[in-house]
C-alpha cells in the first residue's frame, strides 16, 4: 500500500473535495444557538451520509445528552494501530452579520481564501481528514491503520456532554492514539509539531477582616479593610516587572533545555505585535522571550476579584470579606499540588496579623502535558513534515491545555497529535473567517502520509510513550 | 418666663408623657415596607392631632413625593431666634420578630427599660421635644423661641424626598438653627456635645491594561493583568500598619489641638471592645487613639473593588479592566478637592508604565463640619449640660456626616445641635430595641432649659457663627 497513489488521487480530485467542503460549509451548524437546531440536524444527516458513502462501518450518532457526535469506523487492519480521527462539525455564531463581506454560510473564494463561518475552525481540516480516509478506501480498498472518525458537535460550546459520550461509548472509542484536525499550524513558513501544553491549578481565596460589613464613617481609620488586605496579598504575588514573586513555586520549575530555547526561537514571532494586537502591556519574567514565558514558564493570574459595594453610585462601607479567583498555568514538570500548596503558603505568610484567609477549591489541577520526542505521533509527524516542507519541524507548545485532548487523555489514556491545517491569521470566531485554499492541497498530501507512517508502529508503542 | 416652672410641670406629668410615648410606639411606622402604609398614615394622623392639640399653628403634612413630614409651628416670639426642632416618626422594620422578648409594637417596661421598635430611634427623644414645646405653651402660653417642628417620615430609608421637601417648603422652613432629637448621647456618665463630623470625598478608579479580556493560557505570563495592577495601586494607599501612605494628602491635615486631645480622652472608650464587638482587626495611624483616628484624622477606604470573572467555578481570563470605589473621610480643615487631587496624583504615580488609569466622579465632596466653641448652639448646650449633670461637657465629633444635618446645612444654611437622649447600648435597628426610662425625665429637664438658653441670642448670632 502506498500513500503516493492516494495523494495523487486526492490532487486529481481537488475540485470534488472543494465541492464537498462547500456543501459542508453551507450548513449553518451553530451549536450554541437553538435557532440553528435544524442546521445542526441537517449537518449530522450530511455527515452520516458522507461517512456511509465512503464505506465506513458502524456509522451512527453518539448521544451524550447534548449535541450528538457523528461516528464511523474502518477496522480492517488487524494488528495495526487504531487511531481516533477527531474533528468537529459545529461552528461559532456568525454575528455580527453586517461585518461579513460575503454571507457566512455562502462559501466564497476571493484571492485564494475560502470565506465562510467554520472554514478555518474546523470544517476545512475536518474535510481533509475525512477525504483522506475516503481516498484510501477508494484507491486501496483499505486504510494503513484502523480508523475511528469522531466528529464532535459541541466544541464551540465547551463540550458539555463529551464526558458523558466517552462514558457511554467508551468501548466503541477504544483506540491507541488520536489525531485531531483541530489545532492548526503555528506558522505559514515553519512546520510545527505541538508537543504539549501548560498545566493548570485553580483556587479561590477568601479574605475576612471582620464579622460584618462596617460603616466607613464609624470605623474608617481604625480597622482593617478586607479589600486593602486582599490587594496587599495580590500585589505580593508578582514583582514590579510582572514576574512571579513566590520563590517556593518557582524553585520547582525546571530550567529550559537547549532544545526548548532553540525550538522557541525558531518560530518567527513578533513580540511587539503580539502584545499590541490586543492593546496589551508587555510584562513578565525577565530573561525569557514571550513565547518561552507563554509555553515553558508558569504564570499566576487573578482571573476575578471582588468585594464590597459594586453597584452604581457609592456606599460607604468597609468590606469584611473579599475574594479572588486565582489560576496558575504550570510549566512542564511542575506538580499541580505542589504549586498550589506553595501559592497558599505564600498567601498565608503575606496576610497581616489577624486577617483570616481561606481557600476554596474550584476544580482539580492538571499537570503540563508533554509528548516525548520519541513518541510515535511525534516521530510520524516529523517524517511527514520533513518530506512535505523540506524543513526540520519545530516543536511548539501551547500556553493552555486544549479541553478535548485533556478529556481523551484523562478518560481514555489517549495522546493526541494536533494535525490541523488552519493558520493563525484566519479570523477564527470573527467575521470574514476564511481558510487559505492552498492549505487544502497541503493537508491532502500530509494526511495520507501521516496515516501511512503511523502504520509502522505497533499499537503498544503509542501507550508506552505516553507522556 | 422661666424654664423651671415648665420643668416642674413636665416632671409632675411624667405619667402622661409616658402614656403618649406608649401610644406613639404602638403605631407601626415602618417606612421602608409598603405593608406598613396604614401604620405610616395612622402615625401621621396621630402627630397632626397631637401638634394641633398642643396649640401649634400651620399644622400640615409636607409632601415631597415620598413619605410626608409632619409640620407645626409656634411663631409668637418676634425678635427671638427661630429653631427647627427635628425628629422622625418612622422606624426600622422589626424583623426578625422571633428574637423580640415582647412584641415590637407593644411597648413594655422591664428593669427600667422601655422596649419597643423606635423607642430609642427616635420616638423617645422626639416625644421629649414635642412635650417640651407643649409644656411651654401650657404653662407659659408661649415659648422662649420661635419653634418649627419638623418630624420626618423617611429617615430610616435615607430621606429620599427630603431635598424635594426642602425645595417645595423652603419659605416655611426658614429658621436660624436646628435642634435634632436624633443623634444621642455618647456616654451615660459624661455629658457630650457633638461639634462636628468628618467630611467625605469619593471617586471611582478604573484601571485598564488591554483592549479586551485575554485568555490566560494564551497570554498568561506575558502581559499586565488589570487586577494585579489595581491591587498594586490599592496596596500603595496604606502602609503595613494601615496608616495612609499618601503624603500630599496627609500634609494638608492640621495637627490635633490640646482641646482635641483632651476632649477625645475625656470620654470613656474601650478600644479593644470597640474593635472586638464587630470581630474586627485594629489598624491605623500610630500615635493616635482610635477615637482620634475616627473623628479627627482622615481615612481612605476602598468600599468596593471588582474585575474579571466573579461567578461560580472558574474562567481563565486575564481581565483588561478593574475598578475600585474609594472614599476619603476628611479631617477638620481638609479641602475635599485638594484631598481628591492628592489621591488621584498618588494613584497616577503608583500606576505602572502603560497602565491606563481613569477616574469617575460618584458625587461631590463635602468638607468636615465644625461648630465653633463660641457658637450659640454649643454655648447654650454647655450651660444646660453643666447644670443638669454638674460636669463640664465634653466636645465630641462624629466619624461620618449625618445626612439630615448635611442637607439642612447645605440647602438652608442651618447649623444643627444634636440633643437626643438615647444612649449607645439601646440596640437600635436590632431586636429588643429599648430606651432607658430615666432618659425621659432627663430630657424633659434639659430641653426646656435649652430653649430658654437659646432665647438669649439674637437670631443673627446663629448665622455669624456658622462653621
From TrEMBL, chains A, B:
Q: List the transmembrane segments.
A: none
Q: Peptidase M20 dimerisation domain spans which residues? A: 196-350
Give the UniProt keywords, A-Z. Answer: Hydrolase, Metal-binding, Protease
Superkingdom of source: Bacteria
Instruction: Tell me one Pfam family matched here.
Output: M20_dimer
Protein's UniProt name:
Acetylornithine deacetylase/Succinyl-diaminopimelate desuccinylase
Tell me the organism. Bosea robiniae
